[in-house]
Amino acid sequence: MNKPTYVTLPALPPLEEFVEYLKQIWDSKMLTNNGPFHQQFENELAKYLGVKYLSVFTNGTLALVTALQALRITGEVITTPYSFVATTHSLWWNNIKPVFADIEPDHFNLDPDKVEAAITPQTTAIMPVHVYGYPCKLERFQQIASAYGLKLIYDAAHAFGVKINGNSVLNYGDLSILSFHATKVFNTFEGGAIICPDERIKKRIDFLKNFGFVDKTTAIEPGINAKMNELQAAVGLLQLKYVDEYILKRKTIAEAYRKQLKGIAGLSFLNDIDGVSQSDTYFPIFIDSEKYGKTRDELYETLKERNIYTARYFYPLISHFPTYRGLPSARKENLPVAEKVTEQVLCLPIFPELRNSVIKEIIEVLNKPAVF
Ligand SMILES: Cc1ncc(COP(=O)(O)O)c(C=O)c1O
Description:
This protein is α/β, with parallel strands linked by helices and 372 residues long. It has twelve helices and 13 strands.
């Protein structure tokens, strides 16, 4: 039996290089609270991503929670059921009512037309997700937000490094958040960031992530502790040296999958969009069981028997979780596209160290639904 292969394996820089950073932390005794690595990481990361300002966080979920507080969002926020549950949990933590709208059938992002139809006098913001790193319909969302006076916060947890004709996808909307969790293209073990357009909002975010302190004695709002520590920031600085390499390797794997999975009846995948440079965070495939001859779950089990662990991202829908399923917008009839896609999706392993022999085996299995 092969060694287990998981849907992802975190990419890490050479340990010897990290030891140098550790020595500096041990010498300075600066462990957290906007230390030198934190400051350097914010500057270098903003440059790398091609954004003006950002604030780094201990994880992506607290970045989402704080982004909503930074813009003083209340009432109802329209969001997608087809995401990781943290997207909606961030609303719950702010006492905001989530309103689910359906996704569009081409890239499974929140559908702007469905969002517009769901707006009520209580709606204050829209929170779309660039699912799998494919950009949402950015201009249309901006147009709706402007027309109805709504804030626009993008959950860009999957969209590290994604650009549209050279411009970062993170430059759209009022704020965007990133996750640097171990499973992401770029990781700081745990970590995240809010990308913001100006210095004023960055200052507000910086004090909200530090208990609300604006100086040593004044906490002007009940902020949270969501600061990134120096170890995480040091990992981030080192990862920046290698992340282009990681993305390139992912691209090669995605190309191999695309080339060799083309034309299998009942199996589809997402294609690149003209002008968009992807980071290939995930490689989702979609199984139409009638045409493919097997269900998504049968395929999941077959690969599992071979020690290959795929992931059903995103199954179940967020609207199926106990906290949210009683909401009127969570009804199945309201979300037909999401309900269908959640039953079809399977994310294949994709990470820099994925071996060619495993890629070959996955492709062989997927090509022969009749055999398993
Ligand atoms: C779409 C999305 N939003 C938010 C998060 C939360 O980020 P974190 O795990 O860094 O808290 C994740 C994943 O982890 C995610 O996939």
